[in-house]
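Chapter summary example.
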Amino acid sequence: MSEELTSKLENLFNEMKDWERRPVVKSGRIIIELVKLPEKHSRSTIKPASLALMIRREDAFRGIIIGSAEEIDDLRTAISIEKIRDLAKAIKEFNRKRAIKEFEI
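The structure predicted for these 105 residues follows.
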């Protein structure tokens, strides 16, 4: 990891408010944003504020929060399985058929 990128992230972290998002990449209808996660308190620990990536559709407010390179690798592996691609195509076809309503004349 480059020192320059780490320095930029540190500056962004200090500038950003909790839950603030900064766009990183837009590919088709998918947006990847840098988001500042707030400090998290539990009964026994306090997790400090941190940065993460959020992957979401452009028309959605919520998305998937990714906090490490390992999570990106796991997501990439899961999405690249041919069975998932076939399932997504079948879902699109299923939804298209349900959107068409026929009326008797």
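To summarize the output: The chain has two domains: 1-67, 68-100.
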